[in-house]
Batch of 4 targets.
Target 1
Amino acid sequence: MTLLHPALPDPMSVVTPEQVAAYQRDGFVVIDNVLDEEDLLALRSTTDDLVEASRSVTAHNAVYDLEPTHSAAEPRVRRIKMPHLVHPAYDRVMRHPRILAALQALMHPTVRFDISKLNLKSAGYGAAVEWHQDWAFYPHTNDDLAAVGVMMDDMTLENGPLLCIPGSHRGPVHDHHDAAGVFCGAMDPTKAEVDYASAVPCTGRAGSVSIHHARTVHGSAVNTSSRQRRLLLLEYRAGDAWPLMAKNQVGFEEWKSLLLAGDDQPIVPRCTPVPVRLPLPAPVHQGSIYENQRTLKNNYFGTAEAPKAVRVGAAQPG
């Protein structure tokens, strides 16, 4: 095997042993001060430009997922799709050495990128995301997968932060199908499969990141504050985790190029006895999780009281 990548920071200089233990126990953690002000300024200015450019867009397309109330006079974008392919500023953060080092400590010594999205919650109306597990969308041969949430703004309880159910990553893969039996990318809260009241918000200052396991149950409420909330989501997997669904597979050369840290083992998948429930039949509404979840009849957010602001694993090494 050949080492393909330059040395990253010592993973334990980015996370503490306590944070590793919290991730293993709870399925998520918040790490403070990962990005500096220069990184944040680049992300914010690029995002502002993209939102401004959306004035000429009238329907969802390959880049934009729009709020139902979007207009040229008042652009309302709820997601930028695959932002790392849209602008180099997002691609640079996707390859950020401190993020990759943190993933080596928490997830696996080899880190392969998967997909990205930028969820935008504008002040006063930013859309909720119903409870779900990322694993329901893209099962692999093993479950060493994680999503990094880069906080472009301060995340508070009021502006719709990511909410995670502690320990849910060690439980089953829950049903994400609607009443008609079609995949909708959301859990039916009336089934009470998890204790939603135990949800913990991933709050933090801009420049912090949350990292959650692919099987962790999570969601986020409507932004009821006067401040916007922009969360860049970057999804990664272990180098030897192979997708089980054809829609998540890419050409071999691209597959190799997505390895960002560690030694390459491109044809030796690691198979573990992890629970899998396929996301089939395909959703009625395609394009984003917001569209997928439209057929869920029993919504949770918008009426439920948000959980108390409790931080988990947010201590930062000195």
Target 2
Amino acid sequence: MKLALLLSGGKDSVYAGYIAKTKYNHEISCCITIASENKHSYMFHTPSISKTKLQSDSMNLPIIIQETSGKKESELKDLERAIYKAKQKYDIQGIITGAIQSVYQSSRIQKICNKLKLEVFNPLWQTDELTYLNDLIKNNFNVILTGVFAFPLGKTWLGREINSSFIKDIKEMNRKYKISMIGEGGEFETFVLNCPLFKKPLNIRAFVDFSEGENSWRRELSI
């Protein structure tokens, strides 16, 4: 199938695209990014969202960037508008999402796609967290943390790469504090710097860290 990738910049969306292409032989025709003004959006990833254009360029894919205020209802209309554009311009037959556990997100995307007569492909749905993290490493994904939003994670976790050391530490955080090992509860956000889909890696030239309150840190990347 010809599919559009809902691209947030983080590990889940990029890895979902990787599975769709390499395991199921789907064609990724374009990327769709929803750039929300609401940092606390229930639907959309916001850290490093402005850098998805660089990722799509590295994948040699066109991208539709749809801005939204992030209000609960209007952001869904903006998502539908972007998906409709992709259907009209690239003749897509469906959407790839990185949804893993969020029924809120997956059900709303499904409703939009039903309306537009498109398929929804969720290759990571209900995946085992530890298996997923190890698969990222095994498949040469270079993923870093760009936001942390839960105790006891703090500034020192910003920029950490998902590797064996990270897995060891996040397993302990899960055991002690019930933190999702993949950040599915909003505990952390990620950005993909390189993977087999990219023609060339993205290199960080500089970054700025800033706090948004207790146990809430973000890293703004310059690439």
Target 3
Amino acid sequence: MPTPVIEKRRTQRDLPQINERIRFPEIRVIDSDGSQVGIITPSEALRMAEEQELDLVLISETAKPPVCKIMDYGKYKFEQEKKAREARKKQHTADVKEVKMRYKIDEHDYIVRVNQAQRFLKSGDKVKATVIFRGREIQHSNLAEDLLKRMATDLQEFGDVQQFPKREGRNMMMLLAPKK
């Protein structure tokens, strides 16, 4: 037996307030060229919109009196969706990137890790610097802490320490956030 399709019923609130759906005694009307027509009844404004073969669209419901504009609703809706897409495209979520190393790291390898972290911070991501311990190396956690503090000073022009070095099991980690 197929499962029933649950359809969301559209209420009056869900529908855009255009043309006959505008229910106010008086509205402020802006013409299609951007000039103010004045405060008139919705029926008059709708007649004006129909003469121009356009729609009457509610722009600001909270204004006193509410503001409506005579425009092509399809074009307006397309422009709004386009703006929303552009805004989503420009949004950058800060990811957490990780650089791992051992406390006995060679100088050149350390510089490579610092450069990686620098690149991550420049692109707006947070950096989690982790020092991994193996076996009895955990006794030298002070050396790992010194290494992470050195990394923080090397990267201080690109990011700030969000979480200072702390031990988590067999690792020691520090979190850096990009500077604004």
Target 4
Amino acid sequence: MLSSRLNWHAPENHLSQLLAAKRKAGESILDLTESNPTRAGLFYPAQILEPLSDPRALLYQPEPRGSLQARSAVAAYYKHLGVEIPEDRILLTASTSEAYSYLFKLLANPGDEILSPCPSYPLFEFLAALSSVTMLQYPLRYDGVWHIDFAALEQSIGPRTRAIVCVNPNNPTGSYLKTAELSQLEEIAVRHSLALISDEVFCDYAFEPAPDRVMTLVGHRRALTFSMSGLSKIAGLPQLKLGWIVASGPGREQALEGLELIADTFLSVSTPVQLALPHFFAAGTQIREAIAARTEANLQTLRDTLHASQATVLNIEGGWYAIVRVPNTITEEEWTLRLLREQNVVVQPGYFFDFETEAFLVISLLTPPGIFVEGLRRLRTFL
């Protein structure tokens, strides 16, 4: 009786089963996968949620693109990044996941195809299925730095391809687009009449400056381009559910009209959060700085702990994750199961993120320092 869009049922993986059993038994687990900033021991000002009680929120005045005040706050955020954009190119959503859903509906008919990077966050396939589109992958390659395999990307483009997703910086590789890559990506998009969708939720978390790094695709673009971000990462407030889409490039006016029609159908963005958005951007600066300090310190700890070991920390430019290459003497699943079984340490296997080869472990740099240090000590012991 249910839609085929929901045909995702799969048995719980062995790592989740073992983790649940250990927690049920009351064992103390060192979780090196924590990516929720509100559960990572960070300091949040006690008064941060006070603006949600603004009495103006009692009046419901739906605006499909979001209130002008809120969109002006988003525009001010991009001005801080060095990009001037008018408010009418911004459309608010409840999250970046919803933004993906809107864009898939805007750009693709049922059965059309969207290209996304590999490795990357495993949510895309589910979001695409709910919009009745097909997600195909193009590879990122690593040779000391991560880069797009453009030959493979072009081979993935077919008559039903409608858009290319890039995650900037990528999750979990932490790699940013470079100016030369963006130029080539735009050339391909123009030649094949494709849109670009840029997920930029981690763009504020670069570890070191780089002159050829692309921070955002917002601005003057040669192809129709949609940039997305939200409060979840920028302010470390995923529970407040506010994201946005910024349209750039040729055809953006017609695209925004279509997005407005979609948004008007759902009207999902909360009025209290829109009213409080300028405050959250201001408060988010302190939270963002705390997250950056945490991830930078943990990355250095990771490099120091695994130095001269059998493991290699791959080069990472930004974001909240690190990738560790371990000896391919056992499978990634065996690595993660044995670490949990013998050391009570949880890490994620690379295949969760569709790594094409083994063996890689993915570790969250957001992990509280005490847990991080001890977890890595046990990982080094296991190695």
